[in-house]
UniProtKB/TrEMBL annotation:
<protein>
    <submittedName>
        <fullName>Uncharacterized protein</fullName>
    </submittedName>
</protein>
<dbReference type="InterPro" id="IPR011990">
    <property type="entry name" value="TPR-like_helical_dom_sf"/>
</dbReference>
């Protein structure tokens, strides 16, 4: 038996349980490291920085259901910056996470009343909440904003290079930033942080866990498995590597129904996809799921024959450039003659 098979035989957590545990661990790391960063900013007297870190802390508490701690942290933000929008925005986001849209609206309206000069961020949030109420759109917590905050504050903490920053804190900060970059699909930056982590700490299992998690987010489970296998060779008794290996093996053994279905059926399913949103988007592409998915999607004439330049019109310029760049990569892979050329 290989190291991975031994690991799988000893522990069988479900993929869903593993994903939930990873998510909870991520937010707990945010809480621990943000508390540490806040303790380091006490001597700086930088109220805006403290408010930003505190907002991040409140969101992390909310993501693991610790609402008491989350709203206590919001009260701290109000004490630090009573005349700035941070506290009202944070409180509104917490209510939105709970599904309490009227309370979220009240928080924003209170902020608009208390702050003499109209604040653009409060106005934007008010418009967003109004659309949720009147158009019955599904309420959403802005995770992108939360992740951007983590990256910004983690970068500041690493650059500050505090004398009290231990190797363990440094390792956890790089790992947190790498995984956060992965969560917003900026994988070049994510793997750059993972490489830095490997250069600084080559003798700990967290390096392999970091690479494994990034490959997992990308959908490359076999690559993740290979990285975890490398880690198990060096650290055969590490329980985290064993759990990761067990889940990956479990998922790789599953039957891919899409891959075994007749071509005429899968072509009909693929034809319903939007090639820009579902295949060429910055998020993990369906082309990365497996070789079979990649082949069937690329060879589906009814999907690709409808693509035109107007499909690339969206508000976010960065998303447009990424989609066009991805399409230029995919175009040479499509079957000759698909577009009648």
């Amino acid at each position: 038996m290989t190291q991975l098979q031994d690991a799988a035989a000893s522990d069988h957590p479900s993929p869903l349980d593993m994903e939930q545990a990873k998510d909870k661990f991520f937010h707990e790391q945010v809480i621990d490291l943000t508390k540490w960063a806040l303790s380091e900013t006490d001597a700086l007297h930088n109220k805006i920085l403290k408010a930003g870190l505190s907002s991040q802390l409140a969101m992390a508490y909310g993501n693991i259901g610790q609402w008491g701690e989350a709203f206590d942290t919001v009260n701290t933000i109000f004490e630090i910056t009573p005349h700035l929008p941070e506290g009202y925005l944070c409180e509104s986001q917490l209510y939105l996470m709970q599904g309490y849209i009227p309370r979220a609206v009240d928080s924003i309206n209170k902020g608009l009343e208390q702050i003499p000069n109209d604040d653009a961020t409060l106005q934007h949030q008010a418009m967003l909440l109004s659309s949720y109420q009147h158009q019955q759109q599904e309420q959403q917590f802005d995770k992108k904003q939360y992740y951007d905050s983590i990256i910004e504050n983690t970068t500041w903490t690493l650059d500050a290079d505090s004398p009290s920053m231990t190797p363990d804190i440094t390792m956890r900060l790089y790992k947190l930033r790498a995984v956060t970059y992965g969560k917003i699909y900026q994988f070049t930056k994510a793997f750059k942080d993972a490489d830095t982590l490997s250069d600084l700490f080559s003798d700990i299992p967290d390096v392999f866990l970091c690479y494994g998690q990034l490959y997992w987010i990308q959908g490359f489970k076999r690559r993740a498995l290979e990285k975890i296998d490398e880690g198990l060779i060096q650290f055969p008794d590490d329980p985290r590597l064993k759990r990761e290996a067990a889940v990956l093996l479990q998922q790789l053994r599953r039957v891919d129904i899409f891959a075994t279905a007749p071509l005429e059926i899968t072509d009909r399913i693929i034809a319903y996809l939007d090639p820009i949103k579902h295949v060429l988007s910055p998020s993990p592409s369906l082309l990365s799921v497996s070789k079979t998915w990649r082949s069937r999607i690329l060879n589906c004439v009814s999907l690709w024959s409808t693509v035109n330049t107007f499909d690339f019109y969206v508000d976010d310029e960065e998303s447009v450039l990424r989609a066009i760049d991805q399409f230029c990569y995919v175009l040479p892979l499509l079957p000759v003659g698909m577009f009648g050329i």
